[in-house]
Amino acid sequence: MIGAGLAGLVFAREVSAQNDVVLFDKSRGVGGRMATRYADPYRFDHGAQFFTARSATFRKFLEPLIGAGVVAPWHARFAELTGDTITSERSWDDDHPHYVGAPAMNALPKALAEGLDTRLGLRIERANLEKGLWTLFADDGSEFGGFDWLVCTQPSPQITPVIGADSALGALADSVEMKACYALMLGFDQPVATPFDAARVLQADISWISVNSSKPGRSGDFTLVVHATNAWADANIELDLAEVSAHMLEQLESVSGIDGRRASERQIHRWRYANTDKQNGPACFVDRESKIAACGDWFIRGRIEAAFRSAAALAEEFRAIL
Ligand SMILES: Cc1cc2nc3c(=O)[nH]c(=O)nc-3n(C[C@H](O)[C@H](O)[C@H](O)COP(=O)(O)OP(=O)(O)OC[C@H]3O[C@@H](n4cnc5c(N)ncnc54)[C@H](O)[C@@H]3O)c2cc1C
């Protein structure tokens, strides 16, 4: 399997009791976009911020993880900012829970990865099917062969570079666009007073401000995570990161009055493939002849629950195959 994000991990857990599954991921940790950046003494969830659970199946899946404490509701003071004005406010409560990984977003994927064969820090550059078996070629020159099936769970634009465009999956993946995002991470020596823990920002080049340290189980160090809008990130995807940071700091100050230049830790991350609009196609892909399959949020929507749904749909299809 390529990718140890939520979709890859959920699918692997579903089928690993009956099959030998190996997950390859180019990152040093599991979780993909459910990511946490460590910059001592600060921790930042710089990818996904929170998630909801609308379906009964996802809620059931979360139950043991909530029981184990690796998922917890975030009782944030939520605000909507239109420009520099708070236009609505409410508190997130247990009637409509907004969940996060605890004590960090990547705690959930880490818990799911326990007991799975994950090979990290290996970017798969090419996959080849010969005599009914798949071989994967990694960026360090190593190759891994003898796989009956190849399951791709990477973001849609990262699929054809591995399998080629000349296939049904390649054509489908290339038809689904993904949008970019920048994450600005700020760690402060002293807490900053904010009228919200989480804010959706409208009519600006930033779309989101969160007090990361207000999430459950976080350490006391005050941290902020700011996201650019997908539109601004797409339009400025090759911009120098120092310029991105400067623009986002200026935007942060103009909408919230927070002076991010006072932060003692400042980091910026470019997410080239962060988000997908709602799709109307299948929830996953299976080609029984070539023994290649795919799942991931991009089949449905750029959401954690969508990644779960896609993986669960693929696992359901595999129950009839394997
Ligand atoms: C900035 C940002 C904010 C977000 N906010 C939210 C939110 O608030 N709520 C919400 O529900 N969702 C949010 N999301 C979306 C959410 O994170 C995703 O929907 C979900 O994590 C996708 O999971 P996935 O397994 O489908 O893909 P991913 O998590 O992207 O996993 C794919 C994996 O494939 C690996 N990979 C790719 N190519 C290769 C290769 N060639 N070789 C080896 N490995 C490879 C990657 O390293 C990655 O680990 C956000 C995402 C971002 C980036």
Explain this structure.
- The protein has 2 domains: 146 residues, 3-Layer(bba) Sandwich (FAD/NAD(P)-binding domain), CATH 3.50.50; 151 residues, Polyamine Oxidase, Chain A, domain 2.
- The two termini are 15 Å apart.
- The longest helix has 18 residues.
- It has a 7-stranded mixed sheet with strand order 6-5-14-15-16-13-17.
- Strand 2 and strand 3 form a beta hairpin.
- The chain has 322 residues and is α+β, with helices and mostly antiparallel strands.
- Helix 1 packs parallel to helix 8.
- Bound molecules: flavin-adenine dinucleotide.
- Flavin-adenine dinucleotide binds next to helix 1, strand 1, strand 13, strand 17 and helix 8.
Shape: globular
- For this structure, the CATH topology of the largest domain is Polyamine Oxidase, Chain A, domain 2
**Relative helix content:** 10-25%
Q: What's the tally of helices?
A: 8
Secondary-structure-derived class: alpha+beta
Q: Could you give the distance between the termini?
A: 15 Å
Question: How many strands appear in the DSSP assignment?
Answer: 19
The CATH architecture term of the largest domain is Alpha-Beta Complex
